[in-house]
Design brief:
By secondary structure, this protein is mainly α. The protein has two domains: 105 residues, Hypothetical Protein Yqey, Chain: A, domain1, CATH 1.10.1510.10; 50 residues, Arc Repressor Mutant, subunit A, CATH 1.10.10. It contains eight helices and no strands. It starts with 6 loop residues before the first helix and ends with a helix.
């Protein structure tokens, strides 16, 4: 007896199983789907991410077939996103939109894999509360304040946004 499932059901089941996997593992498991869909940009991006994660595993003196923890994988994803942002900025400065467009597409894919970042308004609210709690009166203590705030918001907010909020509050 053969049980047939609707096509959407298998895709949903595949996504559900990916949710229970580690980030590194789920990215690696997404490569065949990108191949089947013939999505070259996604495939190239996923392969480069898996390569970066494998390099990270090897750098920590582990076997290449092991997986990173979710925290380590997020760090690799953030690093990859920052590299893409830097490349986009450099290509746009040089007027090379032909090179910045593929980078923007890759950045969108990488950002979809990262947890959502906190909006500036939320960062500002937390920063004001922390500023009152710590009693930071001047720009002289901005570095200490930014460091404390970054520890509290680690993984939840972009470092550039936190720095901009701190600078605006202490200006």
């Amino acid at each position: 007896m053969v049980h047939l499932q609707p096509a959407g059901a298998t895709a949903a089941a595949a996504m559900l199983s990916l949710l229970h996997m580690a980030i590194h593992e789920s990215i690696k498991a997404s490569i065949p789907d990108a191949m089947r869909a013939k999505d070259e940009v996604k495939l190239r991006t996923l392969r480069s991410l898996v390569s970066a994660m494998t390099n990270e595993v090897v750098a920590s003196k582990r076997k290449p077939d092991e997986f990173l923890t979710d925290e380590q994988a997020r760090a690799v994803l953030k690093r990859a996103a920052n590299q893409r942002k830097d490349s986009i900025e450099q290509f746009d400065k040089a007027g090379r939109t032909d090179l910045s467009e593929p980078e923007k597409a890759e950045l969108a894919i990488i950002e979809s894999l990262l947890p959502a970042q906190m909006p500036r308004e939320e960062i500002e609210k937390i920063a004001r509360a922390k500023m009152a709690e710590m009693g930071i009166p001047s720009k002289a203590e901005a570095g200490k304040f930014t460091g404390t705030l970054m520890k509290e918001l680690k993984g939840k907010a972009d470092g550039g946004d936190v720095k901009a909020v701190v600078d605006s509050l202490l200006a």
